[in-house]
Amino acid sequence: MNKRLKLTSIKSSDDENSSDQCVWNFEDTKRELCEYAKSCGLKLMVEEKGLEELVSEIKIMNKRGARKVFLAFNLMIGLSHMGMVRNRRKNALEFLKVAEDLIKNCGSKGMITFGDGDVFEKLKNSLNFKSFFEGNLVHYKALLESIESQFSEKFSKARIACEVLFVAPCISSCDWLQTWEEMKSDGDFQAEIRLESGSLSKNVLMEVKEVLRGCESSYQARIEGGNENELVLEWKGTQLLRFSIWKN
């Protein structure tokens, strides 16, 4: 095996201090990833550590004159299956700033990918909390409708379970108010990133549309952004997910 890859899952301080049960098992996921990588001829190392620990490790390697490597950082927030995460906007901003600094100063090259299942970036210019609140209602109504469309009547209990477990906890006026207040104090979320916008190829869009085949009347996907660095997934005109990429 000539190809090597290290995958690091970042633990936030909130994860360490929280008594909530994790929605996924790291060791099980690690084993499955390594087994799949092995079948593809890839030597994969999977680890879990805090952000500060990762920064320290990379900077030590850099000081020792080790060969610089390609650094890729992936951030996903607001995806319903991930469960509720406290201070997710604050943690996301911290992660993006650290990732950009490491790419600029410690890596040979690098990239940041960002999947946003929330709507606060789309609603960041809302004039008041009322319009922000209503925008969230529209978003989660569309999400519930999209889930319902994928389940036949005989699987209604499974659909309800998905809605209760993954969507209902996200519909909270208190959490939305906290997010609104954070938006007003933090400013433009993605404007913090100074890396060049990476262009998404047409092949990416074609792959997404292949997955959506048969559902084109309800789901729409398109590439946006000044440098075509954003992929948007919508349900009947309402945004469900925005994926962005930056690189140097």
Would you write up a description of this structure?
This is Nodulation-signaling pathway 2 protein. It comes from Trifolium medium. With 248 residues, this protein is α/β, with parallel strands linked by helices. It has helices at 13-17, 26-39, 51-63, 88-106, 129-149, 156-167, 173-186, 202-211; strands spanning 3-11, 42-50, 71-77, 110-116, 196-197, 219-224, 230-235, 238-247. The strands form 2 sheets. Strands 3, 4, 5, 6, 7 and 8 form a 6-stranded mixed β-sheet that branches. Helix 3 packs parallel to helix 4 (88-106), helix 5 (129-149) runs antiparallel to helix 6 and helix 5 (129-149) crosses helix 7 (173-186). The longest helix is centred in the middle third of the chain and has 21 residues, at 129-149.
Shape estimate: globular
> Oligomeric state of the chains?
single chain
The structure class reads alpha/beta
Continuous helix count: 8
The radius of gyration computed from the alpha-carbon positions, rounded to a whole number of angstroms, is 19 Å
Give the SSE string: EHHEHEHEHHHEHEEE
List the helices and strands and how they pair.
Layout: E1 3-11, H1 13-17, H2 26-39, E2 42-50, H3 51-63, E3 71-77, H4 88-106, E4 110-116, H5 129-149, H6 156-167, H7 173-186, E5 196-197, H8 202-211, E6 219-224, E7 230-235, E8 238-247
Parallel strand pairs: 1-2, 3-4
Antiparallel strand pairs: 4-8, 5-8, 6-7, 7-8
Helix pairs in contact: 3-4, 5-6, 5-7
At a glance:
The chain has eight helices and eight strands.
Overview features:
alpha/beta, membrane, 248 residues, transcription, 8 strands
